[in-house]
Amino acid sequence: KNEVEQSPQNLTAQEGEFITINCSYSVGISALHWLQQHPGGGIVSLFMLSSGKKKHGRLIATINIQEKHSSLHITASHPRDSAVYICAVKTSGSRLTFGEGTQLTVNP
Amino acid sequence: GAGVSQSPSNKVTEKGKDVELRCDPISGHTALYWYRQSLGQGLEFLIYFQGNSAPDKSGLPSDRFSAERTGGSVSTLTIQRTQQEDSAVYLCASSFRQETQYFGPGTRLLVL
Predict the structure, then answer these.
(1) In this structure, what DSSP letter does residue A5 have?
(2) Is the pLDDT of residue B1 over 70?
(3) Poorest-confidence range of A9-13, A41-45, A73-77, B45-49?
(4) Count of A–B CB contacts within 8 Å?
(5) Which of A42, A88, A99 sits opposite B105 (nearest CB)?
């Protein structure tokens, strides 16, 4: 069993839909990251959080430390949101352990 | 430039050859990370540098892999005697202390 599990692995949505991607982890962490990997391969850090909730534009990330669970929400999804979304947890030191990613496709 | 840069962007080499991959972090960033993403696989941590501290090498897959960071800035990842399973995208990231990581575009390595 991976230390970081994401669901779903693949997600197809229609433009405008509300999207949720989930991340569960089994180890103690100091922080959790949500990353976006574009079709061309570039990776962008969306959020780093250790408690509560963060919002940036149409993106919202939440984390429940007791339940070892985080969610990434996208409101009013758009085709340009199509990408792989990756959850990563910071464990010992500063190394990150990554989930397998969620491939999101938003159709117009 | 303002972002993390990596070179080369693509590298094709023959099995058994040595390769060097370069990363230029964002100026002022104290932490530098190397990751690997094999085809169809998730991201994998390789090594982490923070200031003048000893690097965290716990993710290096074998002793054929090594990395150094000179002057607290540029880093080089070296793979000796490359194998086909080393084919992957090698990504570098930097951050100020342990804050948000900024990723470079990666080096696509193909070992024939």
Answers:
(1) E
(2) no
(3) A41-45
(4) 49
(5) A42
